[in-house]
Automatic annotation (TrEMBL):
<dbReference type="InterPro" id="IPR039028">
    <property type="entry name" value="BCKD/PDK"/>
</dbReference>
<dbReference type="GO" id="GO:0005524">
    <property type="term" value="F:ATP binding"/>
</dbReference>
<keyword id="KW-0418">Kinase</keyword>
<dbReference type="InterPro" id="IPR018955">
    <property type="entry name" value="BCDHK/PDK_N"/>
</dbReference>
<dbReference type="InterPro" id="IPR036890">
    <property type="entry name" value="HATPase_C_sf"/>
</dbReference>
<keyword id="KW-0808">Transferase</keyword>
<dbReference type="GO" id="GO:0005759">
    <property type="term" value="C:mitochondrial matrix"/>
</dbReference>
<keyword id="KW-0067">ATP-binding</keyword>
<dbReference type="InterPro" id="IPR005467">
    <property type="entry name" value="His_kinase_dom"/>
</dbReference>
<dbReference type="GO" id="GO:0004672">
    <property type="term" value="F:protein kinase activity"/>
</dbReference>
<dbReference type="InterPro" id="IPR036784">
    <property type="entry name" value="AK/P_DHK_N_sf"/>
</dbReference>
<keyword id="KW-0809">Transit peptide</keyword>
<feature type="domain" description="Histidine kinase">
    <location>
        <begin position="169"/>
        <end position="291"/>
    </location>
</feature>
<keyword id="KW-0547">Nucleotide-binding</keyword>
<comment type="similarity">
    <text>Belongs to the PDK/BCKDK protein kinase family.</text>
</comment>
<dbReference type="Pfam" id="PF10436">
    <property type="entry name" value="BCDHK_Adom3"/>
</dbReference>
<protein>
    <recommendedName>
        <fullName>Protein-serine/threonine kinase</fullName>
        <ecNumber>2.7.11.-</ecNumber>
    </recommendedName>
</protein>
Length: 334
């Protein structure tokens, strides 16, 4: 029986490239937050949702799998990437074999008003406080101290009402948690000789188009030349933590900010850093205020994606200053 199962599994895996090649020819269909709510509401047609997902999920998986295959060979040969690839393949095969439509009408008992992972009435300040509290626990554990939090809300449409939005709370929490960790570490380390720590200030502003969250710290800031590098994977200003030592590290892995910006951009938002070296840093999360504008930003496999992974290096439009400028007086025109 075990031999038969292995044979069937190998046969299904052999069909994966055919599915990938076929479905990667189609472009994914991005949904807005409003469409997610419509699909997940109690009045929605479950069969319509199922039909859409059955066609859409293979397209999304195939497109990203096609792009993963363009990564350099040395990256593709790593065990972690191979494991992720196997997950994608298995997910695609599971979807292709999923023929029965089963709905039990159940809801999330912890969050009965949520539609899937989306909160139609997400209280932004509450998520800010939750992320701060968790980051504070880590900071207190490592430094035995942590800065306080000051929150200010500016609701341009109704100053007396708290700010709510349609969003995925877990996405927002992740972004804020990473920003709080960075702000707390910088604040504590730059004021280690002080008796008091300056507070971290968060401003939540709701306008007609954007909902913006600005987090300001007095952590000393970073030089301008390092700002973009902070969004590079595996780059961190903190020492790399030792694995297996137990506990959750405060910083050092180098993927917190890049992934946070991906979360922000997924629904047409953004995450930007503005730093003043010697003073502090402002981190701003930009989100769409309207659910109709919060449309998914999805990767598409095409020729542009293929060219992106080629190793051809083109000459830049600007000269790059050398770390050791040449003494031009030693060069003579022959």
């Amino acid at each position: 029986m075990r031999w038969v199962r292995a044979l069937l599994k190998n046969a299904s895996l052999a069909g994966a490239p055919k599915y990938i090649e076929h479905f990667s020819k189609f472009s994914p269909s991005p949904l807005s937050m409003k469409q997610f709510l419509d699909f997940g509401s109690s009045n929605a047609c479950e069969k319509t949702s199922f039909t859409f997902l059955r066609q859409e999920l293979p397209v999304r998986l195939a497109n990203i799998m096609k792009e993963i295959n363009l990564l350099p060979d040395r990256v593709l040969s790593t065990p972690s990437v191979q494991l992720v690839q196997s997950w994608y393949v298995q997910s695609l095969l599971d979807i292709m074999e999923f023929l029965a439509l089963i709905f039990d009408g159940s809801t999330n008992p912890a969050h009965p008003k949520h539609i899937g992972s989306i909160d139609p009435n997400c209280n932004v300040s509450e998520v800010v406080k939750d992320a701060y509290d968790m980051a504070k626990l880590l900071c207190d554990k490592y430094y035995m101290a942590s800065p306080d939090l000051e929150i200010q809300e500016i609701n341009a449409s109704n100053a007396k009402q708290p700010i709510h939005m349609v969003y995925v709370p877990s996405h927002l929490y992740h972004m804020l948690f990473e920003l709080f960790k960075n702000a707390m570490r910088a604040t504590v380390e730059s004021h280690e000789s002080s008796l008091t720590l300056p507070s971290i200030k968060v401003m939540v502003a709701l306008g007609e188009e954007d909902l913006s969250i600005k987090m300001s710290d007095r952590g000393g800031g970073v030089p301008l030349r390092k700002i973009e590098r902070l969004f590079s994977y595996m780059y961190s200003t903190a020492p790399t933590p030792q694995l297996g030592t137990g506990g959750t590290p405060l910083a050092g892995f180098g993927y917190g900010l890049p992934i946070s910006r991906l979360y922000a951009k997924y629904f047409q938002g953004d995450l930007q850093l503005f730093s003043m070296e010697g003073f502090g840093t402002d981190a701003v999360i930009y989100l769409k205020a309207l659910s109709t504008d919060s449309v998914e930003r999805l990767p598409v496999y095409n020729k542009s994606a293929w060219r992106h992974y080629q190793t051809i290096q083109e000459a830049g439009d600007w000269c790059v200053p050398s770390t050791e400028p040449k003494n031009t007086s030693t060069y003579r025109v022959s």
